[in-house]
Amino acid sequence: MDATTPPDHDPIEQARRLLDGEPLGLDALAARVGLGPHALRRRFIERYGLSPSAYLAQHRLGRFKRQLRGGGDVTRAI
Predict the structure, then answer these.
(1) pLDDT in tens, the chain (78 residues)
(2) DSSP for the chain?
(3) What distance in Å separates the CA atoms of residue 61 and residue 55, rounded to the nearest whole number?
C-alpha cells in the first residue's frame, strides 16, 4: 500500500481485519479480498512478517491470554 491508497482499499489490511474477526482459510480469505492465495500469502508475509495462518494463531493466543487475565476460565477462553 502506498500513501495514497485508503486502508479500506488495501487488500492486505482487509485480510488482517477479516482474520481479526473470523477464522478463514487462505483460499476463502484470498477470495474475500480479491487476490490469489499465493499472492495474498506472499504480500501478507511482506507486510506483517507472518503468514495469514500464523497471524491467526497468534491472534487467537493473544485473545486467549487476555480472557484468562480478565478472570475467564480456560474452557470459555478457548
Answers:
(1) 555 555 568 999 999 999 999 899 999 999 999 999 999 999 999 999 999 999 999 988 888 888 888 776 666 655
(2) --TTS-GGG-HHHHHHHHHHHS---HHHHHHHHTS-HHHHHHHHHHHHSS-HHHHHHHHHHHHHHHHHHTT--HHHH-
(3) 10
- Residue 76 to residue 67: CA distance in whole angstroms: 8
Distance CA 68, CA 43 (A): 33
Q: How far is CA 10 from CA 3, 4, 65, 68, 70, in A?
A: 11, 10, 29, 33, 33
Structure-block grid coordinates of residue 66:
487476555
